Amino acid sequence: MTDTSPNRPAKRGRPGYDLESLLAVAVKLFNERGYDGTSMEDLSRKLGITKSAIYHHVPSKQELLRLAVNRALDGLFAEVDKLDTVEGRAIDRLEHLVRGSVAVLADQLPFVTLLLRVRGNTKVERDALARRREFDHIVTDLAGKAIADGDLRADVDPATAARLLFGMVNSLIEWYRPRGGLRAPELADMVATVAFDGLRVRPEA
Amino acid sequence: MTDTSPNRPAKRGRPGYDLESLLAVAVKLFNERGYDGTSMEDLSRKLGITKSAIYHHVPSKQELLRLAVNRALDGLFAEVDKLDTVEGRAIDRLEHLVRGSVAVLADQLPFVTLLLRVRGNTKVERDALARRREFDHIVTDLAGKAIADGDLRADVDPATAARLLFGMVNSLIEWYRPRGGLRAPELADMVATVAFDGLRVRPEA
DNA sequence: TTAATAACCGTCCATTCGGTCAGTTAGCAA
DNA sequence: TTGCTAACTGACCGAATGGACGGTTATTAA
Predict the structure, then answer these.
(1) What is the mean pLDDT of residues A89-117?
(2) So where does this one cross the membrane (chains A, B) (predicted)?
(3) Residue A180's pLDDT band (cuts 50, 70, 90)
(4) pLDDT tens digit string along A185-203?
(5) C1’ D10 / CA A23, Å
């Protein structure tokens, strides 16, 4: 989807990585080995340039992390903003948010993956966690309204419903790979179906 | 549940940590900061002993990880073994496994948490991932049989069903804390209900 | 009182870590 | 051909890392 290869045509200056192409490689490596488990040496080796060359593009290792997680968060909050245009009951808006989140997850998989693994060791990580909590709060509110509407099971409290729902959504990062046969819309269908209607086949009336 | 405090009564030798109590602190810290993000210095400070004292109990940092993830895996496979005694259809056995896994997760939360975050950087981690895949394979087989029985939706393939199901189960480590009001059996009920019957309220016939 | 046991300390080490800095090189436009 | 821009190199640094090692201290059983 995004061109991440070095030496792409028609640019000023010496060809090579720019911030974008470098970030793509970095995030991929962070996801493979973990952020703390990846040294700048490791990254430079993977890039095929020296460690100091990385610092031409980015002032610190943490900045790479910051750029990545914010990209994921911006994508997710863009889906939240889209909800304003969605008419209908809370459960429908909730389903929209689920589908939107699956779409962001599929489209920005490496960034979302990194986001969901952040632990809170540094300020960058804590800021990311704060924005994640903000997102979770929005989901919980929607679940609460859907329960009040009588559309979502009342034997599960809103916070738990939100957590189970997005627990399932977020678990996609563990196995979904866009290159496989399954496309994002079909994936979103599956998740929405299973989450809202369950895995069990119900005897028809 | 398990006594993890140092200086418990009636033991030989100088009182202090033994492997068990040390491991508990280590795993907790690993979960807070990440395995790679936790140095042996960090751990020694948390323990209140010197770094070298740790190496009296354990030969390496990786050994701590190995002990922890194997404890989690042993718990999960014990639940698999229990399935032999369960009569009934595949979907019932699958539900048993879900409930059993939730129980293990709740009882051995720190160990399971650490297990689910392993990336595969070292041999210890790769071995853990291999055992996890073995577990996943068992779940997928069960899902396949349940679909063949006509009990699980046929519009989701077995592997995806297994992944969504245990994606939801495993996401519990992100928020479930045993000290809260919710007990493990009630938690298992909720997860099983939501996963198999969905979050949506269905109009009664 | 004396072993045996088991936890612990202080010091040290080679390596790796994230990061700095002064210079170099490759392509483009004028 | 000359600037200009932007990517890159190599040598270096102080701090932190996982771990080794020889000696010490607190407790219980005989």
Answers:
(1) 98
(2) none
(3) confident
(4) 999 999 999 999 999 998 7
(5) 24
For the whole model, what pTM was predicted? 0.94
User: What is the distance between the alpha carbons of residues A154 and B72, in angstroms, rounded to a whole number?
Assistant: 33
Chain B residue closest in CA terms to A39: B36
10 Å CB burial of residue A10 (0-12, 13-18, 19+) is: exposed
* Higher pLDDT among residues B46 and B12, named by residue: B46
Please indicate whether residue A179 or residue B2 has the higher confidence score (pLDDT). A179
Q: Which residues lie closer than 8 Å to A18 by C-beta, 6 or more apart?
A: A11, A57
pLDDT one-digit tens code per residue, B118-134: 999 999 999 999 999 99
Q: Which positions in chain A touch B193 (Cβ < 8 Å)?
A: 153, 155-156
Q: How far is A94 from chain B, CA to nearest CA, in Å? A: 11
* Count of CB atoms situated within 10 Å of the CB of B32: 15
Q: Are B149 and B97 in contact (CB under 8 A)?
A: no
The token pair that represents B176 in the structure block? 């479930």
Whether B188 and B158 have beta carbons less than 8 Å apart is answered as: no
Which bases on strand C have an atom closer than 7 Å to a protein beta carbon?
4-11, 16-22, 25-29
Residue in A closest to B164 by C-alpha: A168
Residue nearest to nucleotide C6 (CA to C1'): B13
Residues 6+ apart with CB under 8 A from B190: A155, A156, A160, A164
- Select from B18, B5, B123 the least CA-distant residue to B65: B123
